[in-house]
Amino acid sequence: MTSLQHVEALCALDQPYLRNAERDRLFDAAMREITLHHCAHTPAYADWLAANDFSQDQLAQMDDWSTLPPLFANYFKQRLLLSESGKDALELTSSGTTGQKSRMRYDKRSMSAAQGMVDRIYTQYGWDTPETRCNYLLLSYEPAGAITLGTAHTDQFLCKYAPANRVVYALRHHGAGYEFDPFGVIRALGEFAEAGLPVRILGFPAFMWFVLERMREMGYPPLQLHPDSFAFFGGGWKTHVDKQIPKAQLYQRLGEQLGIEDNRCRDGYGSVEHPVPYVECSNHHFHVPVYARAYVRDTTSFARQPYGKRGFLHFVSPYITSSPAHSVVMSDLAILHPAGSCGCDINTEWFELLGRASKASARSCALAASELMSRN
Question: Which CATH class is domain 5-96+278-356?
Fold first, then answer.
């Protein structure tokens, strides 16, 4: 059995945005461990490296992990790639009611590692408040049986940081599928304002915008939610990209109509193929935690791009043992910026998202969910 002591040590680090030479060495050691682990325990992974002219001997002195042959996230829509520990593990999917699905398996240690990262980031931002009861608005799927959708699983997990008084879902299950319920959401927000408890809004930003627009069309008066309320979004606009609203505009409207301050509105980036959490800082930039590295690759040559240049997002993290997803290229375009250039108190690299690279048939759960919006 390949030793994973450095992987475990990295994933257990507190202070998720503290980078120094010692932690960089730990990251390198953890990446060597996980790569050797998959060479030994994931069928055909060693052959994949060899086919890309990468020798396991190169790992010994390696510290530039952009050169480790990656997998494309879209490939997980075609094949379920498993190591030995992934055979009987939890399976999560990326799509909603229709379209291609990425299927991923997470053994207990991989899931625990990813969730531990979220724990530490929530603690960093002061959002882990077990003593504060909250009402929740989940802009995602109402559970119906086992939760297998990645976004639904994430939203359920995020409810653990403050005890739930009441939970309301925007996507209601009606037996044969899901239906967006804007009037139910508006009614719940009014009741939440009257209740006087903090409100946590989690899920797809497109649904929040649709609700705010519906409230304005109805002449619904502005609400004042508890000052400790906050909104944490994930997903995107997908099929409604032509109607996409800049985040600053969405956050402004949340302040005007719900009384949520800009600093209490954040976005998160992640995926079922790579659930390492990338969370907006107070300046609304996605910072890279110590558990991962981010690169940008040219869309034509696939060469690594310097800071300030656009390309495919490429993430590297050694947390996962159940699938060889420790080096994954996303279908999203982004620009990477150097540490210290954000202006907040977090001193790690950060990236800005530019959207999807193409309009291919590959679909995500956010895309499938966004189509439900057009039915209302």
Answer: alpha beta
